[in-house]
Every structure is written in structure tokens, then in C-alpha cells.
TrEMBL record:
Residues 138-160 are annotated as: Disordered. InterPro entries: NAD(P)-bd_dom, NAD(P)-bd_dom_sf. Residues 142-152 have a biased composition (Basic and acidic residues). This is NAD(P)-binding domain-containing protein.
């Protein structure tokens, strides 16, 4: 029996390499990794996967920037995958504010190019289109967005992801492409880019330097922390994607969420407690620093939960294990800017 072939775009990125790690452990499938190895893509992540030396015979790598179409030569090298997991994207809000056109090219045009390739894959069973909670815009207190709610993107990054989703649905309707869309929330885990909250906080606490925390003026004209998010470990996200490869329905979208909501300050304080050192918060006005910053994101995970999926690892255990991994001297190079 022929083994499944999986194409992962953005496979050298943070979530992409965790998804590869998970699927290497859970399946006997073969993988083609597509990445342009820029700011977020780093093959050291793939080589750091514990089973890499054993499983590297199941992995092939192809360099490509999806702003360009997949030409005939590359298409032959990619093969005829059974699953395409499309994670390649530009994802940093601040950089999207500086260069919105780049994000439109990477996230919208790039998606169209890989979907045009996918249209010709006769073996294709699922195309998983990775989106974000941010397409829905801010969530009022007490509300969590469901999959079918309207998009209200607040910044160029979330607008580009909304466009990515729109093309995914259009390709499903027009060409019958078996697109399954996911919305994920704040993912964390090992080997994350140093600019992200967890590694940045760990570095700040270890060095005894102030940690910037977004804040707003309260009624007493004092700054207080804002920025509430639901947090999920990449292992749980990967588990949900594997579940959707089996049970997801083309044309549908699914919220992949953690069930633990914290402000950035609360996350930073938990990290400091695990390390055993003091956090030095530095409150900054979030609107002055980041126009288009949303105070709170929230997704409703009922749909996926009713289908039978649940996180494999608790938030507390995954946060503890992640911080301890970074504290190991052999892993501390992942904290460097």
C-alpha cells in the first residue's frame, strides 16, 4: 500500500515544524517541506526534531517563495500529495503595519499560487488552510467568535489572512478543492521566534531587564495591563490538525483553541514564577506603540469539541515544560535575537 504524501508549506516555521514532528510520530507518511527560509523559517528547527536522524529518509525539502507561481519543474519535485498543509505566511502585526503590500503578496497571492498547484493534484484529499483568530477582530468581554461570524480585521496582517480565507472558499466552490480552514489562537512552544512573548519574557527575566507589557489608562489615570488571549501549545494544535485530516469537512472552517485565557502580564508572571526570578514589567501604551492592536481575541471551540477533539496536554504542564526546555543550556541559543 502506498504511503500518504504530505506537503507542508512554511514547514521550517514555528507551527509548521511542530506539525511535522507530531505527524512523524503518529504516522508512517512521507513529507515534502516547502519554505523560503526567511525571518521565520529555519531548518535548524527541523533538524532539532528528536526523531530527525531516524526519520529524515521520509523528508524532502524544496526551497520556494510562494509569491511566485509553482512552475512545472517545481510541481514535478513536489509530487502528487494526498494532503497539503498550508502554513506559509507572514504573521507579525507590527511588520504588516510597516509594509501592508508585502503581507498581501505573501498571504493572499501566495495562497492563490499554492492552490493553483493543488488543483492539479489528483491524489489530494484535504487542503488545510491555516488562518487566525485575528480575522474576526476584537472580541468583547464575555464573547467568543464562532466560525461563521463576519470578518472585521483590524490591521493589515489580519486583513491579508481574511483574503487568504476568501480565496480558499472560492477555490472550494469554483474548483471543488477540498479546503478545510482553521483558525488558531496564540500558539506557544519550544523553538519559537525570539520576538514572541514567551521567549522574550524568559530572556527578560533571566537578564533582569524590564519586560514591555501593553497597557491602557484606567479610571485612576494609571496604566494597567491589557491584551487578553487564549493560549494553546503547538502540540495540541498539531493534534487538532491531524484530527481534521480524518474528520474535517471540505468547505468548513474550524476554531482550534486552548481553553485558558490570560493577559500578557499573567503569562509573563507565570513564566517568572517557573524560572524562580522576579518579573520587571514595563507598561507601555498599546495604541501609541501598535495602531490596530486588539485588546482581546477569543474563539468558540464548541464545534471541534462536539466532534470529539480535545487538547492532549494541559496548559499548565505545557507552559512549565516549555519554559524548562528553554532553561536547558543546550537550548538557550533559541532565546537569542
Amino acid at each position: 500500500m502506498t504511503k500518504k504524501l504530505v506537503l507542508i508549506t512554511g514547514a521550517a516555521g514555528f507551527i509548521g515544524h511542530h506539525l511535522l514532528d507530531y505527524l512523524l510520530q503518529k504516522t508512517d507518511w512521507n513529507f515534502v517541506l516547502l519554505d523560503r527560509l526567511d525571518l521565520s523559517g529555519n531548518l535548524d528547527r527541523v533538524r532539532d526534531i528528536p526523531s530527525y536522524e531516524v526519520d529524515k529518509g521520509r523528508i524532502r525539502f524544496e526551497w520556494h517563495d510562494l509569491k511566485a507561481p509553482v512552475n512545472e519543474s517545481l510541481a514535478k519535485r513536489l509530487g502528487n500529495p494526498h494532503y497539503i498543509l498550508h502554513l506559509a505566511a507572514s504573521s507579525h502585526v507590527d511588520r504588516s503595519i510597516e509594509d501592508p503590500a508585502l503581507f498581501a503578496m505573501d498571504n493572499v497571492v501566495g495562497t492563490v499560487n499554492i492552490m493553483n498547484f493543488a488543483r492539479n493534484c489528483s491524489n489530494l484529499e484535504k487542503f488545510v488552510n491555516f488562518s487566525t483568530d485575528e480575522v474576526f477582530g476584537p472580541a468583547p468581554e464575555g464573547h467568543a467568535h464562532k466560525e461563521d461570524e463576519p470578518h472585521r480585521p483590524s490591521n493589515p496582517y489580519s486583513a491579508s489572512k481574511s483574503g487568504q480565507e476568501a480565496f480558499g472558499y472560492a477555490f472550494f466552490i469554483t474548483y471543488g478543492l477540498p479546503v478545510v480552514t482553521t483558525h488558531t489562537m496564540n500558539n506557544f512552544g519550544i523553538r519559537q521566534h525570539p520576538e514572541k512573548l514567551l521567549p522574550k519574557t524568559i530572556r527578560s527575566v533571566l537578564n533582569g531587564t524590564p519586560m514591555p507589557i501593553f497597557a491602557k489608562l484606567n479610571k485612576k489615570k494609571r496604566l494597567e495591563a491589557v491584551g487578553s488571549r487564549y493560549w494553546i501549545n503547538c502540540w495540541n494544535t498539531s493534534s487538532a490538525v491531524y484530527f481534521l485530516l480524518k474528520h474535517g469537512k471540505p468547505g468548513e472552517s474550524y476554531n482550534i483553541i486552548g481553553f485558558d485565557e490570560f493577559t500578557n502580564l499573567e503569562i509573563a508572571e507565570r513564566i517568572a514564577k517557573i524560572i524562580g526570578k522576579k518579573l520587571i514589567p514595563k507598561f507601555v501604551d498599546f495604541h501609541a506603540v501598535r495602531p490596530g492592536h486588539d485588546r482581546r481575541y477569543a474563539l468558540d471551540g464548541t464545534k471541534l469539541k462536539k466532534m470529539g477533539w480535545k487538547p492532549e496536554i494541559s496548559f499548565d504542564k505545557s507552559l512549565h515544560d516549555t519554559v524548562k526546555w528553554y532553561l536547558d543550556p543546550k537550548n538557550q541559543h533559541w532565546l537569542n535575537d
